[in-house]
Write a structure and sequence with these properties.
The chain has one domain (about 20-150): Alpha-Beta Plaits (2-Layer Sandwich), CATH 3.30.70. About 30% of the residues lie in helices and about 30% in strands. The chain has helices spanning about 35-40, 50-65, 65-70, 105-130, and strands spanning about 20-30, 75-85, 90-100, 140-150. The chain is elongated. The chain has about 150 residues and is an alpha+beta fold.
Length: about 150
C-alpha cells in the first residue's frame, strides 16, 4: 500500500556535493510618490536615512535566510552587496550574494532585495498614505533573480 507523502518535508541532501563558488544577483522595485522619492534623495525622511537602513536590513536578511525560509540550507556567505538606486517615482534595490558552498545563494539574494524594499516601505509609509489612510501609490514589484553563477 502506497503511503501518502504529500505532506512530508525535508531539506535536500547536499552532503555529497562539492563546495564551489556561487553568486546570485536579485533585484526589485518599490513605486512611490515623487514627493517621497525627493524626501529620500534629500535624506529628509523622519525615521532616518532610508538608503543606509535598507542596505543594512538587506545584508542582515541575507545572513538570516535559513532562519526565515524553513528548508533553506545555512550557507557560509563570503560577500553581500546591496545597492539602492532612486528613479523618478521608484526605488530599485539590487543585491548580490557570494559564497563557496554546496548550494546556490539565489534565495539569499532574493531575501536581501525583498527585505531592503520592505524596509524602504516602512521608512516612508507615513508619506505614502492617501486621505483614506491607504497606500494608493506604494507597490513592490518585479522582484526576481537577475543572474546566478556556479563554479567560476
Amino acid at each position: 500500500m502506497d503511503e501518502d507523502k504529500s505532506h512530508e518535508t525535508s531539506m535536500v541532501d547536499i552532503s555529497s556535493k562539492p563546495a564551489v563558488y556561487r553568486a546570485a544577483t536579485a533585484s526589485g522595485r518599490i513605486k512611490l510618490k515623487k514627493e517621497t522619492i525627493n524626501l529620500i534623495r534629500r535624506n529628509s525622511v523622519e525615521k532616518g536615512d532610508a538608503i543606509v537602513i535598507a542596505k543594512m536590513a538587506g545584508t542582515l536578511a541575507a545572513k538570516n535566510t535559513s532562519i526565515l525560509i524553513p528548508l533553506c540550507h545555512q550557507i557560509p556567505i563570503t560577500s553581500i552587496d546591496v545597492d539602492v538606486n532612486l528613479g523618478g517615482d521608484f526605488v530599485e534595490v539590487s543585491s548580490t550574494v557570494k559564497a563557496i558552498a554546496k548550494t546556490g545563494v539565489e534565495m539569499e539574494a532574493l531575501v536581501a532585495a525583498t527585505v531592503a524594499l520592505l524596509t524602504i516601505w516602512d521608512m516612508v509609509k507615513q508619506y505614502e498614505k492617501d486621505a483614506a489612510g491607504q497606500y494608493a501609490t506604494a507597490k513592490i514589484e518585479d522582484v526576481h533573480v537577475v543572474q546566478k553563477i556556479k563554479g567560476e
